[in-house]
Amino acid sequence: MYRTTSKFYRIMIVSILLSSSFAAAFAQKKILFVTSNQEFYGNSKIAAANHFEEIVIPYHLFIKAGLSVDFVSPKGGAIPIGYINSSDSIQKKHLYDPFFMDKLKYTLKPSTINTDDYSAIFYTGGGAAMFGVAEDQTIQNIAREIYNKNGVVAAICHGTAGLAYLKDNSGNSLYSGKKITGFPNKFENKEAEYYKTFPFAIDEAIKTNDGNFVHSNEGWDSFTVVDGRFVTGQDPSSASKMAHQIIALIEANTPQIKKETIKNLDKVFSEWDNASHKPGVAAGLIKDGKVVSLKGFGSANVNHQLPVTIDTKFQIGMMSRQFTAFAVLLLEEQGKLSLADDVRKYIPKLPDYGHTITIKHLLSQSSGLADFSALKEIAGWRDKDFFTQQDALNLIFQQKKLGHVPGTKFSPTSSGLILLSEVIKQVTGQTLAAFSQQHIFLPLGMNNTFFLDDNETIIPHLAVSYQVGKDGLKHNPINYSITGTTNLYTSVADLSRWYLNFENPKAGSKKLIEKLTSAVTLNDGKTTYNPTAGKLLYGQQYQHAKRGIIKLWTYGLEGGYASNIFIFPKQNVTSFVLGNNNRYNGILAMGMATEVLGDIFPEPENIDFGKLKTLKLTRQQLEAYSGHYWDNERVAALRLYVENDTLRYQPLGGNNISSLVPLSENIFQMVVDGDGVIMVKFRKEGGTMKMIYTSGESDEYVYEVYNPKTYTTTSLNESTGTFYSDALKTTYTLHQNEKGLFTSNKNQSLIGFTPIQTDLFLSSARNIGSIRIARNKQKKIIGFYINSDRIKNLFFEKIKP
Questions:
Q1: Contact 360, 712 (CB under 8 A)
Q2: CA-to-CA distance for 742 and 752, rounded, in angstroms?
Q3: Could you tell me which residue ranges the DJ-1/PfpI domain spans (predicted)?
Q4: Which domains does the chain show, CATH number per domain?
Q5: pLDDT per position as a tens digit, 64-115
Q6: What's the pTM?
């Protein structure tokens, strides 16, 4: 039957459970491979198999062309494969590719297929294809629906048997009068036992269904037939030619943007042109409700040389928060909770702080709760320590005070998202992971997306988390199992489904999406939160002007994973990049978006400071603003000084120095690369100079001038000693050396403190922020308070001198 003597290989493994139905409306370019579960020819003991070459060659070419492939079989799960030519480099590569082989182990059930997801259906061959496929009515319906939606129907060799009974909606042949080829009866060994088990001859079955069966005279000559949107191949030699013909038809039937633009999109990722072995990225672009591009670049696993594909899973860090917010708003829409509900209604273990914390406060970062990730670092947890959801909750529950009255001001904190995860659990009886799977991911067909709440789970098709440094590559594992604020794993193919849902909701409603993309407010219902990242939205994204055009954006950075998303709502453009290369990938995502948006930006890519209308100030006028400045709210210090008749800006302890250009006597603009507009204004209040910093449309950051405190060794000595926090069950010992006051913890061997004012020190550790010495009425030191932008008044009592 086939010109091969390769032994059959069997994949016999228990299939994972998959959803019974999907409901996504998806414009993605995907191809559905139809395979067979049949292990034997009919009722005989002769082993049957799916033809490996007829699967691998087209699969390889489709993936190379940027297409995605799913596999389906009548029963789902494992399928037998055979006819393997291990001397063929492509077949050998895929035989030892665990990502590909898992697709054959875990084929989908027909009942799980949403035909909106596919541009083509491809019936693969092998003796097994003669059994169980053609008569499967669900697969027949799938093929008909894909064809009716302008899709391609393809079959190779014995896979053409699957077309035998295909009918249109009226009960007539789906390919009436069309030319079809496959493995002809002429080439079969009619004396062989396998042949006697066949339910029909392929050519006769096609003719009976009003098709025009054709074939070459010799065979094994790459014979194919394209008739409309039917593409068929005679035998394994047709595999490569068929694949190219299918790709051409899909491209012709898919709305395209300019070919030059597509080429330029690839240029954005040119660093991987000759470096496919290094950690990489997967990228997606959507325009006008259609997927324009989904591609992978570089390596998902450097050791095993596994490429990044559009189905490769990445952890997306803070980008996970939008899914938590969506789940909360979905429960609100279902009437199962209200944003005005007291959080303690669902989490009674949360201390009563004397002020009601509502679900809205958690979503809007106005709860006053200390940030658990900052508490974690101060408590001495290391990145390599295993950290659970309960560990995070314990840190939150141990806190004695709020930083402010809920809903009266904003402060960045991740604790709210952790608590929201618990609220969902109490309301639904399901974990966030389970609820999201049932109500978000499965309805949208996001098969490669989930919240990881068990750190020991083995994740197939996962991009390895890498740390890229001077010493080469190192593994950068994520050792926690917290959900709500992070720990969502997904692929770019799945993310495209998610963002398409924003335009045509299948999960949630249009009203929910509108709320998700609206700004959070304080209790007054008016005041919005505008950090330098932009205006915070309920969906935990930020709204920010990019060169004069509104964009929504957020990012994630956990371990070696880095992710970015940019949405230009008025232009209907969404661009996103996921990576395992331990770096900010926003430049890549913005590069893709810019290629599609074109020259529509009203503002330049880079500010030309030479064209700004500036004012010449004397050195004396500039010196009036020189000095040290302190922002008590955000716990930040900086120094301004004059050099070469220019006012310079330098964060305390930092190496970056920026120039300030005067636009008026008291208003300056910072010189930056790019299009960011950073303004610095000065005003005197009560005889004290204040500096007001804004970035774009951000809230004002107010700094006040101060005279740095100088300590002698003797005067600093009383600040040393051992201090204990009951809220963290943690001890710190303050020492002094020739450079001043310092301490350490498990994470950092040296944490220095710079004097700001009397009894106030700025820490070199970001999450510690500052310490303010506390004294009793006798002026004796009794402890200190830690303050940062994320934590307020965390007390450490002095227990030893």
A1: no
A2: 4
A3: 54-248
A4: 28-253 (3.40.50.880), 314-597 (3.40.710.10), 609-706 (2.40.128.50), 713-800 (2.40.128.50)
A5: 887 889 999 999 999 999 999 989 999 999 999 888 999 999 999 999 998 9
A6: 0.82
